[in-house]
Predict the structure.
Amino acid sequence: MEKECCPRFDPAKWDEKTFHWKGKRFIKESIPQLFHIPFFPMIGKKITKMNILASAAGKIDKNKDQVLILFHDPNPFRSEIFFSVTGEVPHASNVKISGIFISKTFAGPYNSVPKFVKLMDEYLARQEKKARDYYIHYAYCPGCAKKYGANYMILFAEI
């Protein structure tokens, strides 16, 4: 039996939705990048570390399709990874995110993110809204994207 890596993703569940997060819990890691291009081997190591810490603490949402791993690029040389949890995780950088977020799902290669951000900005403009910041959830790792035949991502625009 094949081990599940990434749960099957339902884009409709996240497309064009509004979320009001009040202290939504995450654990956070950072990785270096060069002009928004991350050092890919570090991503897997950091996510694995976060998963181990959250699992050991029993703080992973029982609904696996509710677990978010958000990427945020505060500058061209550092990326932040936020792993959603249900409570405080020992030995991790625990953070809370609050705000209003509008989400939209996209399918395509990782290098299409700038195009998707532009499409999201146009979508928000039609609603007379503007993003203050972006967080991105990649629904599948590269292996699962190949297995499922799609590479989905959710853009969360903080408005």
Observations:
- DSSP finds three helices and seven strands in the chain.
- Residues 16-158 form a domain with the Multidrug-efflux Transporter 1 Regulator Bmrr; Chain A fold (CATH 3.20.80.10).
- The mean pLDDT is 90.
- Residues 114 and 120 are 10 Å apart (CA to CA).
